[in-house]
Amino acid sequence: MVRPLRIEFPGAVYHITARGNARAKIFKDDADRDTFLSVLEQVLTRFDWLLHAYCLMDNHYHLMIDTSEANLSAGMRQLNGVYTQRFNRRHRRVGHVFQGRFKAIVVDRDSYLLELCRYVVLNPVRARMVREAKDYPWSSYRATAGLSLVPRYLTCDWILSQFGKSRVATQKRYRAFVAEGMKAPSPWEKLEAQMILGNEAFIATLRRPGSDVREVRREQRFLGRPKLGGIFRKTAERHQRNRAIVEAAVRHGYSQAAIADHLGLHYSSVSKVINQEIASDSRFKT
After folding, report:
1. DSSP string covering the chain, please?
2. Reported pTM
């Protein structure tokens, strides 16, 4: 199975998650959580990252990371690798702590960073571990909301700047914003290619012309492609529709099944159109 593409560039923002191997706990007690945050602080300093939000659950964690350089993978190897060593040493065990690689969603700062920072700190509430975000001590909520001291590894400035200039007033507005989050739709409904959260303009900036994408998953090779509705918008006549079918499949990477479903056709009909059009028009040959 091909591994997902890692999109790394200076100034990228990510929602990071990593889960315990076989769904096991990665934090057995508060001492483990303290150890993880200590390792995280070292990684933030070494790789020049900013931490906007975090939440440590029992068998996984969430981080909102802002990277100044294209070094996400290197930093995450350090974070999970060092923590695994310390966890195993403390609990006198061997083997993997985390289940495979971490998951990284690249985030459009302007459109989704604030929303995801809220999503992260509401995890214990959604899991019914606590009634309110302020009741959970192992997230960034209390510090950002002005309910506890801000640790050295956390930056609250960007989040609070979205609510005004007065520190006290912005913290109050932040608390109200988080409280409203339980009624908000899931941000993951707008996820593209399983690893990007942003509008079409943001996605377009992530396209990498000329790169070798043979080992990149199909849906990630066609980031920023037009929607099927747009491709077939002006296809009243059969020959226009047939050309659009080939464009959708060959140029934009849509599966024949997806095209057939969109048009209300049988899969075999779409396949037949593609074969006929390619055979008769060299412009569609690759």
Report:
1. -PPPPP---TT-EEEEEEEBGGG--S-SSHHHHHHHHHHHHHHHHHHTEEEEEEEE-SSEEEEEEEESSS-HHHHHHHHHHHHHHHHHHHHT--S-SBSSS-EEEEE-HHHHHHHHHHHHHTHHHHTTS-SSGGG-SSBSHHHHTTSSPPPTT---HHHHHTT-S-HHHHHHHHHHHHHHGGGSPPGGGG-BTTTEES-HHHHHHT--TT---TTS-HHHHTTTPPPHHHHTTT--SHHHHHHHHHIIIIIT---HHHHHHHHT--HHHHHHHHHHHHHH-GGG--
2. 0.73
